[in-house]
Design brief:
Layout (H helix, E strand, L loop, with lengths): L2 H22 L1 H15 L9 E5 L6 H8 L4 E6 L2 H10 L6 E4 L12 E7 L7 H11 E12 L5 H7 L14 H10 L2 E15 L2 H10 L15 H11 L9 E14 L1
Parallel strand pairs: 1-2, 1-4, 2-3, 4-5
Antiparallel strand pairs: 5-7, 6-7
Helix pairs in contact: 1-4, 1-8, 2-3, 5-7, 6-9
């Protein structure tokens, strides 16, 4: 799949998920709180005047960003117009500036931001391009607080599909080492970094996959995949059930990567 078609597919997936997102985004909200706690240990130098939520979705992270940057003018950017429409409906009368745009081509002037916050959006981007854009819009001394996903994300589902066929059903995300390299190339300094698992839970595989689809994060693969037959589904369920926890819940792992970057 070409880069252009991939981006169109991602945008369409999150547009379709806008109405169901808030009801299913339990892990996404948890990760926002983990990013906020992580960010509090690497504060902005000086009182920030402008802060950007890059890949804001329906806006859950905005209150956390406001707490980290009291008094700052807030900007919320998302690639999917329906997400911004949902945000506006959830926060009527908000004075946050809403921007429909691409993390790989931010519609902002160079040095315009003191802070860039991004929670679970960068994994859909080309890391080198997105980090170069973040570096461009940050002022010297500005900070970026980022949460993205690593290669162990949904490893249980990847493992289960090996019982069905050899196709790539689950997207593979970049390792933290790749983010370290591209950060340096972009001219940003890593002040802090962490990696930790976060788990979505459901009583059965259908519900687990339904929740993943409801947030728009289901696979947007780069190669055609065969349709899953009834027999294939039974094999998938059987293999996934090996990962069932002692409390009876099925887990889906999100391999969380947290980065705090500073522009020199």
């Amino acid at each position: 799949m070409s880069r252009r078609l991939h981006k169109q597919a991602v945008r369409s997936a999150f547009d379709r998920a806008a109405d169901s997102y808030d009801g299913a985004a339990v892990v996404q909200r948890e990760i926002c709180h983990r990013l906020a706690e992580f960010a509090s240990s690497v504060p902005c130098i000086g009182a920030p005047r402008r802060a950007l939520d890059a890949g804001c979705g329906t806006g859950y992270g905005l209150d956390l960003l406001a707490s980290l940057c009291p008094g700052a003018e807030l900007y919320a950017l998302d690639f999917a117009p329906a997400m911004l429409t949902r945000l506006a409906a959830r926060r009527p009368g908000t004075d946050t500036s809403l921007l429909c745009g691409d993390l790989e081509a931010l519609p902002l002037a160079g040095g315009a931001m003191d802070v860039v916050w991004s929670s679970l959006a960068l994994q859909w981007c080309d890391p080198a391009v997105a980090l170069a854009e973040i570096a461009r819009v940050l002022r010297p001394g500005g900070v970026a607080w980022l949460a993205t996903l690593g290669p162990a994300t949904l490893w249980e589902l990847r493992d289960a599909f090996t019982a069905v066929d050899g196709a790539q059903h689950v997207i593979r995300f970049h390792a933290i080492e790749h983010w370290r390299h591209t950060t340096a190339v972009a001219g940003l300094q890593i002040v802090a970094a962490d990696s930790q698992p976060v788990h979505a839970l459901a009583p059965d595989l259908r519900q687990l996959l339904r929740d993943i689809k409801a947030i728009g994060a289901h696979s947007v693969g780069s190669e055609p995949r065969p349709a899953l037959t009834r027999a294939g589904w039974r094999m998938l369920e059987g293999r996934y059930d090996a990962h069932r926890r002692a409390d009876g819940q099925l887990p889906a792992t999100y391999d969380l990567i947290l980065l705090a970057l500073r522009k020199g």
